[in-house]
Amino acid sequence: MYTALSALVCLSGAIGTLAHGSHAKVDPWNEHYANTPDLSFSGVTSFAHLPHVKCLDKPDQAFDIALLGVPFDSAVSFRPGARFGPYALRSGSRRQRPDRGYSSRLEVNPYTSGLYVLDCGDVPVTPFDPATAIKQVKAGYKSILHHPVVNEEEMKRLHMQKGLDGQYHPRIIALGGDHTIVLPILDAVSEVYGPVSVIHFDAHIDTWNPNRYVGSVSLQADVNHGTFFWHAYENGYIKPNSSIHAGIRTRFAGPQDLDDDVTAGFDLIHTFDIDDFGVEWIAEKIKARIGNGPVVISLDVDVMDPSIVPATGTPESGGWTSRELRRIIHSLVGLNVVAFDVVELSPAYDTQAEISAIAAADMVYDFLSILALGVDDDKMKATSRQVDEL
Length: 390
What we know:
The protein has one domain: Ureohydrolase domain (Arginase, Chain A, 3-Layer(aba) Sandwich), CATH 3.40.800. It is built from 13 helices and 8 strands. The chain is α/β, with parallel strands linked by helices. An 8-stranded parallel β-sheet has the order 2-1-3-8-7-4-5-6, sandwiched between helices.
């Protein structure tokens, strides 16, 4: 039965339809400012404003280079806080961006060079159980290491090494985190490439034998940011007698610490060597030690002087400047690098100007540039021939 009420309902619906149909779309932003890129200080803080995906949740996500945060600091010996290092590195990179990433020194823009770079977020490690956290780091890193790559042809052109399985694997730049994270990283990397060499930039050797290390009161305490290279040596992750420290200036318990360091497979460049011999000598010594095999570059930010980088857990006076360190890093272009990490950045001790975070983020940029420039195949072959002849 048609009533006044039903007539009113029909009328109101018609008015609503008319109003909706005649309503013009209001979008002044896209009308005047469509596709405006984020500025250095705006947008979600991924590294260098790169695209960002939580890659651990997307096993089929492809990339050639991953930035992977590892916010772990449960095995430090002095000042904690490196769990915030991945956040600080991303914040310190805000003035970097793909469209202004060209290096006049290295003549490359690593963000647009042909290798697809992605910020893969963080490995969400537990802060309550170091043993479990180390397992989580390996699981997360190994998963990322086995993601598909985007540009196999570009990796081939750059002479990047395939894994023992005959496949190309992504290169990962780990954003730490305290230096203990390198133990599970070396575990995962050595499974793909076999034992690797290490170029270790640090104020400390980190090969301390846990049997003599102060604070090693249990099996779990034996694994920390001062002993992880010793464990890596014992577990066979490191190629014998082919690794090197650079920037060392810490104090030792005695000559036995240096004996253990040699046992673990390392040579040593003291921070003062830069005054006696210069950057070029340091670079040549590193390259002669490493040879043509797969190498991991591990950079503790305390290799730089605390006047340059105060934001670290174990500062030591007398370190290198960021300029000196970057010149040394640039000289390593062409090496067969399969992984990088930047560790021990503790932003609670930084200045309000983020001077430590900015310096550390620039080291990551240099690492990206090394990857974009590829492996010097001629030098690697020449080195191989020399080794064979000997």
